[in-house]
Amino acid sequence: MAQEYRQILKYVDQPGYTPDIDCYLRNGGYEVLKRVVALPPKTLPNGQTLSGPEQLRQEVMASGLRGRGGAGFSCGLKWSFVDRKSGKPIYLICNADESEPGTFKDKQILYKDPHQMIEGMIIACYANDVHLAYIYIRGEFAEGAKILNRALKDARAKNFLGKNILGCGYDLEIHVHRGAGAYICGEETGLIESLEGKRAYPRIKPPYFPAVLGLYLCPTIVNNVETLCAVRHIAALGGAQYAKLGTPNNTGTRIVSISGHVRKPGYYEVEVGKATIGELINDPIFGGGLREGRKLKAVIPGGSSSKVFKAGERFKLKRRGLDGKETEQEVDMLDLPYDFDSLIAAGSMSGSGAIIVLDDSTDIVAVLANMSEFYAHESCGQCTPCREGSLWMAKVLHRLTQGEGRKGDAEYLARIADNIPGGRTVCAFGEACSWPVQSFVAKFKEEFVARGAADEEHRAQQGTGPAAKRELAASPQG
Amino acid sequence: MSEIHSMEPIPNPLREQPDFAVPPDIAAEIDELITHYPKKRSASLMLLHAVQERFGYVSRQAVEWIAAKLELQPINVYELVTFYPMFHRAPLGKYHFKICRTLSCALGGSYKLHEHFCTKLGLDPHAHGAQTTKDGKFTVEFVECLAACGTAPVMMCNDAFHEDVSEQRADEILGGCK
Ligand SMILES: Cc1cc2nc3c(=O)[nH]c(=O)nc-3n(C[C@H](O)[C@H](O)[C@H](O)COP(=O)(O)O)c2cc1C
Ligand code: SF4
Ligand code: FES
Fold first, then answer.
1. Which residues line ligand 2 (CB under 6 A)?
2. Do the domain assignments include residue B153?
3. pLDDT tens-digit profile of B137-177?
4. Which of residues 3-32 of B touch A (CB under 8 A)?
5. B151: which chain A residues are within 8 Å (Cβ-Cβ)?
6. Does residue B11 register a pLDDT over 90?
7. Residue B4 pLDDT > 70, yes or no?
């Protein structure tokens, strides 16, 4: 049976737990930092000496931690790419832009346990020899920015931040930087541009890999809020111990945001891969199943940019048994372990850890139209395929929901979507806006074709007026 | 030789605010903010927030003042005002309702909620952009995912989040706006 495993959310929502520093300190707060900055250099059997920060970086590498922001890239590896020889300062930025539709986990940490994230961030900065760091928080979290500013001030007053932290000779300053309502600021190079005071136009990679040419063209680490909290727990437990949580190559815990057509939408922290998609949706301790009398239609597994799964879809998964032998197994979509690798193997991704559930009352065409409007609104506009493509997809989908569709619209949508991603754009938003269209249209093609055909027929019979409009899904009460 | 007509000046789409003056408390906050960054330009978003919070919008004078403060050209600041959806070029209502339009909230009834507010306040329920009532009291706007999708439908009234907003709850929120 899958269980919740509250490591990062341990205190969040506990009665009486408050975001102030005294409450955090009463519950063991900043103890990990105290130990970390006192780590003595370690001499290896081969005579090499590792400094405290180097040991920390090794622990993070050994932990197998993968980024919780979206791409699931190894945190240890990301840190190892940092150019430490350039002589330039190294910056660290906490990505608190939380804007992938369906995702609402970072907000819980920022609003309810900000010091945990700050402690993780200080440890990450210490490990990487960073002396100036920023928290990039989305503009709508105005209260969150206030909470963070207060928390930083209190941490400074206790010398967890500032000059000569805890007497160890290390200096660090962290500032809060507010975004202003643009989704693309979540993309790390767009975020960096925005932090430089410009429009959030993502930078082309190569050459602008943040680890080498990031903020002010200096080496820069961008990590998600949850990733930085995990760093605190890795520093506390040790990398090897942390790696025992979760499953091989998918270590640790992860906060899953569940929304849409379930009885108990919410955020649930689990060991990565220890719960299946089906358990997360249906188990009474998680999503609690669908509404009375409803059946599952589709699942968007990793934030709105991930490719959709259709109910009943089956996938072949390679699994390693206890004897170490790999066997191939066919599993239902609901039986996919909710981890990084299984979802990639099934052609989608766990992305930001956000599951959106759609029941059989849902109008799939309207759902995709809703999502496409988001992408059309949020494209930064630098690349022609993305700017024009996202807009055209939204327009075609809009007409399909307004009774103005054509039979050929499904093909048309697929053709537009196929021509956006795959290295034609500066950033992965190109993929993000086309993956939903590609997957929805491919997996629910009959519905798109039938909608367009019905609209055409209606117009042929009735003259030019549009067919009737339809609801997105059964109302929440119904 | 054909005559060369002098071009009409391009109308400035930023509002005029002739009496724009930065009060001392904001000026102090701004000077502090600038010290947070190794390069002044980085502070531009934070300065725009600070100015907008006080005046409710960003005027031509505000853009020029920020540009001068950060040793930039006005265009460097103006292009931010036009790029980032949270900056406004005209005053909004005293109460600004941002209703989330994105998928999880739409499934949870946010279109009905938006319509409810618009109908109550005499605004166009089909318009997605910001609309302000004639008395300048309320602005209603559809926005994208507010990162609270588990408690759909979600909205903000100024900086405060409201979650699980039923029509009854919406009326209470409206009633609380004095
Ligand atoms: C279009 C787009 C939007 C993104 N939005 C976010 C976001 O809101 N929050 C986030 O942490 N990462 C976001 N990312 C991922 C970041 O680019 C980056 O990979 C991440 O912050 C790295 O942190 P991690 O390694 O700790 O996951 C986004 C990426 C793309 C392409
Ligand atoms: S892919 Fe889209 S969002 Fe990304 S840089 Fe190009 S236009 Fe901007
Ligand atoms: S979809 Fe409305 S808050 Fe995310």
1. A 184, 202, 379-383, 386-387, 425-427, 429-430
2. yes
3. 999 999 999 999 999 999 999 999 999 999 999 999 999 99
4. none
5. 265
6. no
7. no
Mutate to test the pocket of ligand 2, among A205, A386, A420, A434 (most ligand atoms within 8 A of CB): A386
Show the tokens assigned to A311. Answer: 């109910």
Whether A69 contacts A255, CB under 8 Å: no
Residue B8 counted as domain residue: no
Q: Identify the domain boundary among B83, B103, B120.
A: B83
Q: B23 pLDDT exceeds 50?
A: yes
**Residue A7 confidence (pLDDT):** 98
All domains in chain A, ordered by first residue: 21-242 (3.40.50.11540), 246-359 (3.10.20.600), 364-462 (1.20.1440.230)
Average pLDDT, chain B: 93
Say what the pLDDT of residue A325 is: 83
CA distance A262 to B108: 11
Q: Which of A179, A108, A111 is nearest to A147 (CA)?
A: A111
Q: Contact A420/A412 with Cβ under 8 angstroms?
A: no
Number of domains in chain B: 2
Q: Are residues B101 and B170 in the same domain?
A: yes
Which CATH number characterizes residue B61's domain?
Answer: 1.10.10
| DSSP state string for A8-73 | TTSSTT-TT--SSHHHHHHTTTTHHHHHHHTPPPEE-TTS-EE-HHHHHHHHHHHHT-B-SSSS--
Residues 286-325 of A with CB under 8 A from B: 300, 304
> Do B46 and B71 lie in a common domain?
yes
B62 and B105 both lie in a single domain: no
Residues B133 and B155 in one domain: yes
pLDDT at A472: 80
Looking at B59, B83, B107, which one is the last position of a domain?
B83
Asked if B152 contacts B162 with a C-beta cutoff of 8 angstroms, the reply is: no
Which two three-digit tokens encode residue A147?
A: 């909470």
Which structural domain range is residue B125 located in? 95-175
Q: Which of A200, A229, A87 is nearest to A138 (CA)?
A: A200
Q: What pLDDT does residue A318 have?
A: 83
Q: Check residue A478 and give its pLDDT.
A: 41
Nearest to A142 among B48, B102, B159 (CB): B159
Among chain B residues, CA nearest to A359: B107
Q: What is the structure's pLDDT at A438?
A: 98
A101 lines ligand 3 (CB under 6 A): yes
Query: Of A98, A259, A477, which to mutate for an interface test with B (greatest number of B Cβ within 10 Å)?
Result: A259
Please compute Rg for chain B using Cα positions: 20
Q: Measured between CB atoms, does B157 come within 8 Å of chain A? A: no
A416: left (phi over 0), alpha (psi -120 to 50) or beta: alpha
- Do residues B72 and B122 share a domain? no
The pLDDT value given to residue A475: 66
Predicted TM-score (pTM) of the model is 0.96
Q: What is the pLDDT of residue B7?
A: 56
Report the CATH number that the domain containing residue B135 is assigned in CATH. 3.40.30.10
ipTM: 0.95
Residues of chain A with pLDDT under 50: 478
Indicate whether B148 and B169 sit together in one domain. yes
Residue B138, in any domain of the structure = yes
Closest B-chain CA to A141: B159
Tell me: do B57 and B106 sit in the same domain: no
Longest dimension (CA), chain A: 86
pLDDT at B91 over 50: yes
The predicted structure's pLDDT at residue B2: 47
User: Nearest-CA neighbor of A271 among A241, A240, A246, A243?
Assistant: A246
Domain membership of residue B107 (yes or no) is: yes
Per residue in B34-65, pLDDT (tens digit) is 999 999 999 999 999 999 999 999 999 999 99
